[in-house]
Amino acid sequence: MSRESEAEQPGEAAPGSTLPGVLPEALRAELVAFRRDLHMYPELGNQEFRTTAALKARLEKAGLVPRVLGIGTGLVCDIGVEGGGEWRGGPGMLALRADIDALPIPDTKSDCAYRSTVPDRAHACGHDVHTTVVLGAGLVLADLHRKGRLPHPVRLIFQPAEEVLPGGAPDVIECGVLDGVRKIVGVHCDPKVDAGRIGLRHGAITSACDRLEVTLDGPGGHTARPHLTTDLVVAAAKVATDVPALVARRVDARSGLSVTWGRLETGHACNVIPQHAELSGTVRCLDLDAWRQAPDLVHAAIQEIADLYRAKPVVNYIRGVPPVVNDPAVTDLLRDAMAARLGPDSVEDTPQSLGGEDFSWYLEHVPGAMARLGVKTPGDRTSRDLHQGDFDADEYAITVGVELFTAAALMDGQA
Predict the structure, then answer these.
(1) How far is CA 160 from CA 167, 174, 321, in A?
(2) What pLDDT, in 10s, does the model give residues 176-202?
(3) 318 in helix, strand or coil?
(4) Are 388 and 212 in contact (CB under 8 A)?
(5) Which of these, 103, 203, 50, 126, lies nearest to 394 by C-alpha position?
(6) Model's pTM, two decimal places?
(7) Which of 298, 320, 342 represents a domain boundary (last residue)?
(8) Which of these three, 266, 291, 320, is where a domain ends?
(9) Are residues 241 and 314 in the same domain?
């Protein structure tokens, strides 16, 4: 999907901007082609070998020295690093992060020339756009560095496996990508925001998301004599209905801590009380402190209900990701950068999403912020959402993302 902005052409600065346009038409066209190539060949988490190779080749062509991560896919690339490891302009660097994996769902776009060529694989969350934005910003910033105009070094992080709980970010951090980083920024496609705009928010912009698996066991028996055994069906039903209410009442209601079940299985015959039951679901939370308490609260609530009905529980609480909590100062940097490039009206407030994002793991170590990158063609009334097979992006968003990150890198150096 592609269009030209009616308000201003890519590369033009907003009225009164002191920053130059940074994206030449030839590079813009190259980036669109690069994104379409990624879209046609999506790869799942920790399998992004072709994507990694394509990024490495393009960065090397620009004279940069990207390093493939020790986990096998993904890479990191520094811009503005002088000999001997000294940084020109001050210590530490700004990191730009992109996630490079796709989803295990089919691409259902019927009239798209660049639809996925891989069965049951699709870039249905916009990671191909995120990746292209960081690549494009890196190419522009490398050129500015050669001209002596990059005030501080910048690190590009292309991260695998964002879609795999608990995300690829912890493994990437273990590889040392945050060494020397003082702040980090990222974007996530938003199909509800017009291309040419971004959404920002101080504080939590996404939610925590964990996975929960529970088994309940009892001796079983005849439905004629439930008083002589553990009525496991009732016990499982009570866990399903009462645990969410118990957990919600043990934290501040504003934390939005929610247990929601997606599966409950038990029994095979109408007159046999089963010996085994299974439940699985998710735990979502809007608040970081409540998320840290959630495992203990959930375990305790399940144990209380199970004891009441004489069932034996086993709880497998699988940590996913904490909320992405935007640092106010870094959020303001992105707001100022976007306003400088496309004007103050190009930034809108965004609500906190109930989705999870493993960008949050970076923020456990350094301050940072994530912006919602508008990818909806203005005037398009088609209802689109992430993680759907027909998802696509207005490719003007690539230009906007590159301009945003480039301006942020330049303005960060003015502090």
Answers:
(1) 8, 13, 15
(2) 999 999 999 999 999 999 999 999 999
(3) strand
(4) no
(5) 126
(6) 0.87
(7) 320
(8) 320
(9) yes
